[in-house]
Amino acid sequence: MADLPTLIGETDIQQRVGELADEINEAYADTDLLVLVGVLKGSFMFLSDLAKRLRVPHRVEFIAVSSYGDRESEEHTGAVRLIMDVRHDLAGADVLIVEDIVDTGHTIVYLKELLQARHPKSLRLCTLLHKPDRTEADVEIEYLGFTIPDVWVVGFGLDYAERHRTLPYVAELPPDQR
Ligand code: PRP
Predict the structure, then answer these.
(1) Which terminal residue of the chain, N or C, has fewer Cβ atoms less than 10 Å from its own Cβ?
(2) How many domains is the chain partitioned into structurally?
(3) Per the domain annotation, does 164 fall within a domain?
């Protein structure tokens, strides 16, 4: 399999992850309980690398959601459903959602509403990537890795039909490979 064109290389990702960890370490220096909520599957690599660099005490939870229908189709409504919930109570915790990408923004709007109802002390978002040209919802991103153009990206957690997810860099998937 030929290498895909790199959009963000491994070194650049790791440097940015380190910078984000520094910001988070500073922001949550006095936290009693920081809970990282990784959104499956896409966030698993980013969360892993980020968490290794955190010096503040933290716990890791995972949540899984899915959007109804084919996200590229006309009928795609943006509706999101819960596939797997977190295991522990989030009341009173500083909750940081960890995402690989904010695309339309519907997933994060759904998750923020869902998790806000659990009465966390604070609720913020850390995402590796943001594609603002496609974002339809009003999304506040407290910790952002990279803003990217409207191209199909894979790698570092992101897939195309479950392929390319474990590449250590973010690549652009050319139209003839979809
Ligand atoms: C991706 C990504 C985000 C969501 C963002 O997940 O991981 O969770 O889409 O899209 P949105 O901003 O348009 O809502 P996907 O549904 O592809 O599932 P996966 O992470 O399991 O691959």
Answers:
(1) N
(2) 1
(3) no
Q: For the segment 84-131, what is each residue's pLDDT rounded down to a tens digit? A: 999 999 999 999 999 999 999 999 999 999 999 999 999 999 999 999
CA of 85 to the centre of ligand 1 (A): 16
Residue 4 lies in a domain: no
* Residue of 59, 71, 70 whose CA lies nearest to 28: 59
Per-residue confidence (pLDDT) for residue 75, from 0 to 100: 56
Q: How far is the CA of 42 from the centre of ligand 1 (A)?
A: 7
For 86-98, give the DSSP string. -SS--TTSEEEEE
Look up 159 and say whether it is catalytic. no
- Residue 167 inside a domain? The answer is no
Beta bridge partners of 83: none
Pocket test for ligand 1, best of 81, 101, 140 (most atoms within 8 A of CB): 101
Ligand 1: residue whose CA is nearest its atom 14: 107
Measured distance CA(95)–CA(123) in Å, rounded: 5
Active-site position among 32, 103, 138, 159 = 103
Residue 140 lies in a domain: yes
| Average pLDDT value over all residues in the chain | 94
- Does this model's pTM top 0.90? My answer is yes
